Amino acid sequence: MENNAIVFEEQAVVDNVALAREARLSPCDALNLEFTSEVTPAGMVASAQKAAVTERLGFLVGDWALLCPVVMGREVIPVPTVSKIPNTAPWLLGMANVRGAILPAIDLAVAFGDAGRTVAGRYLLVLSDGEDMAGLVIDGLPKLNTFEAGSQLKSLPAHPEILGGHVLAAYRHGDAVWLDVDVAGFLVALGSRAGQ
């Protein structure tokens, strides 16, 4: 009996679509038609598996692989000229003008204690909008990373001291361990240390 109900509902969906095509309904009227579908256990499993996937914007700073929410990344540009600010932390390169917006340019390599290295292909990853905008100097271009639930590490690995309290999770992807960073909280914490 249950199988007949499912077949009946599927036929109703097909009939409604055919009716909409024949009657040339307006888009609004077509959207108001009643469409029903059964949620099958297989569909529920697929939905749960999809929810277990984490997408993050990944970027490199020296030997560190970092992640942030995709929505945080605004744009990536070559490192612009900055105006230095006296008596600030060495990792604060200065203020940069990015399309008319003035934002702090932060060299994470210096913040992580790796000041002596030089890397070709450094970029400024511009994060957020408005008052919260900041630029992080990164190595290479960022990329979208997808992590399955099973790739999350049970405990956080060692990481730069300045990131303390701002690493939310860690994921293994190939040979790399990616640190998922609370970038908004980290930037606030950095702001309080900028004058040191």
Structure report:
The chain is of the alpha+beta class and 196 residues long. The protein has 2 domains: 2-38, no CATH class; 54-193, OB fold (Dihydrolipoamide Acetyltransferase, E2P) (Beta Barrel). Helices cover 27% and strands 35% of the residues. It contains 5 helices and 10 strands, in the order αααββββββαββββα. It has helices at 2-23, 27-31, 41-51, 108-111, 183-193, and strands at residues 54-61, 64-68, 73-78, 82-83, 92-98, 101-107, 122-127, 134-147, 167-173, 176-181. Strands 1, 2, 3, 4, 5, 6, 7, 8, 9 and 10 form a 10-stranded mixed sheet that branches. A hairpin with a 2-residue loop joins strand 9 (167-173) and strand 10. The N and C termini lie far apart (74 Å). The model is unreliable at 2-10 and 44-49 (pLDDT under 50).
